[in-house]
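tool=predict chain=A
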Amino acid sequence: MSVQIIEKSRKPEYAVIPYAEYQELLEMAQDARDIQDTDVAMAELRAGEIDTIPEAIEDIKAGKMIIVVDDEDRENEGDFLMAAENVSTEAINFMVKEG
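tool=predict ok
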């Protein structure tokens, strides 16, 4: 990574990097947030903290992705779900990678 440090009063003030490398850093940061969000969701699921249907509907209205799970005695799997109007390439990518 090529970085240019700009100093002010002999102290680092800014770091300048090429835009492509900036984009890569943003993607890595988003991946880290996605992993953290997934870990939190899994911990809540294990703790039995499952939303009610009205709460799930509110999350969908707010543009969030939810996981709808089957009964343990059935298929015992989950499906990602979100409103079509809020689907982005990032959301599809997440569903494909994590689903």
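The CA atoms of residues 17 and 70 lie 46 Å apart. The two ends are 32 Å apart (CA to CA).
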